[in-house]
Amino acid sequence: MTQPEEVHSEFERRLLDQYRAAADEQPPPALDRAVLDNARRAAAATHPRGVRGPAPAFVADVNDAPRQRSDEARWGRPLALAAAVVLGIGIVVRYEMESPDLSPPQDKVAAAAASEAAAPPPAALPSAPAQDAPGAAAGKAAAAPAAAEPAPPVAGAKDSADVARPKAAPKAEQAAPKARPAAPAVAERHRAPEPRPQQRAAPAPARVDSVMRENLAREESDQKIRAQAAAELQKAESRAQPAGAVGDANAKLAGPPMPAATARAAAPATAPAGAALGGNLAQSQRRYSDANSSASAVAAPPPPPAMAPPPPPPPAPARAEIAADAAVAPRVPFYEGDPDLWARHIIELRRGGRNQSADADLRRLRARYPGFKLPAEALPPAPQ
Amino acid sequence: MQLFFFPVALAAFPLMADPAPPAPTPGSDEALMLAYARGDAGAFETLYGRHKGGVYRYFVRSLREPGLADELFQDVWASLVKARATYTVEAKFSTWLYRLAHNRLIDHYRRAQLVQFVPVDGAEEEGELLDWPASEAPGPEVQVASRQAAAQLKKLVEALPPAQREAFLLQAEGGLSLEAIAEATGTGRETVKSRLRYAFDKLRAGMKDHL
Hints:
The structure holds 2 protein chains of 2 kinds.
Chain A: H1 10-22, H2 29-45, H3 64-98, H4 106-118, H5 124-140, H6 145-148, H7 154-159, H8 161-175, H9 182-190, H10 197-201, H11 204-239, H12 243-254, H13 259-266, H14 270-275, H15 279-293, H16 316-328, H17 339-351, H18 355-368
Helix pairs in contact in A: 4-11, 5-8, 5-16, 11-12, 11-16, 12-13, 15-17, 17-18
Chain B: H1 2-16, H2 29-37, H3 41-63, H4 66-82, H5 93-112, H6 140-143, H7 149-159, H8 162-172, H9 178-185, H10 189-207
Helix pairs in contact in B: 2-3, 3-4, 3-5, 3-8, 4-5, 5-9, 7-10, 8-10, 9-10
């Protein structure tokens, strides 16, 4: 025992020495064994490194200090690297999840580039000539009201509204000033809803590609029909046949969108027959009539307020020019954008006795709208 | 980039902020305790042999019940064994050991509701902590025999107020300085000095015929 410095006097020092000499109590041996056994068990259970808790401020062995540092460095640096990797991955994943995908995928970009290389003006190719044809007809002679001033192409406007409108609309306005009051109303009616910026940005290449393919397929089939119609019209002109035959040929000349108007002009009895159709077809009849209203002054029941007055019928030479223009520049019929209208068109073709055209339209309709349920009147007559 | 280096810097911080402490003297109490913390049971036996008597007498004088002193004595060493993993050399080992003993004794007092300790520095009048039942005053017949002086002294020590007795025992048995006693008991140095002065005065008054 050390002697404390605070012992003031000799008496106190002697008192302490006397007490220490007198105080000889020791713990009993059983208590010693219990304490020592407990300490040995704890020491035996102690792993050489397992007991190490927080680093002591003072260490008994000088070699302990660097060993503890190496222990910390052993787990500290890998832990830091792992934390950095996890953090980096987390930031990248979060950035990927939160940022909008503004760039189209590489395959779509490649497909769009290939299609552009194959057909330079992708969407204006089918729709611009379709606008030019009626415009030229109206500008030259303002002839053939049913054929020269059709409604703007519905199918083309629906499918390629975003792409074709900027190029086609100015041409139509320049070439067809008389159709100007009617065209905006129809165009607005058939205009696709304005897409939001994100919708417009992401799928644009794929949409252009699909529209181009559809338009090219339609173009091929229309060219065949119009070539036949042009040949028939020329024959009819040369023979100077009556107006009914001219109207029929004119319907062929105008292509698929025209036959309804020409059929009404040639045979007005078809309207009551159309009224006998079911609700679906009646509705399509109304839409069909609305679509034709800007072009047909004969069959349109109540003309819309913005509709232009019907121009006088064009002379025969003008029709030939129209036929030539139509053969050169095929356009997409407006009814192909709506299967109901298309079915109604097929029905009217069959009623007019033009089963071949009706079959061709039926095949195209089935190819384009595989799930559409056709009315029985549009189907080909059963073989007898 | 800053985010990348942040965890690295965090991991490197403990390596930089670890000053090398001075090593304790080989064979000292602190070195033995650290050795035991690493699993050396022999170091504990040495340590136990050095301090078992003082701690035992500390409890015996404070409690005057051998059975209870045994229980608290065993508890203190069990606490030391349990705390070996977190032991750090921040003070003398004896100071840490008697702090464990003091805390265990205070726990006992609180459970038994025998004594109310006033851990405030300053004036501590004699008799303020005399809730402990005092032993009978030594009679004149005890003082005459020199061989009975030791027994008289023990009785006088046991008769001291708990705070004064504890300060005396920590100095006499543990050899602690005033600062160490203050640290072990959680009081101020001047309080310990005052307690010791009162204790010695009483002992002197009781032992004046034997010294």
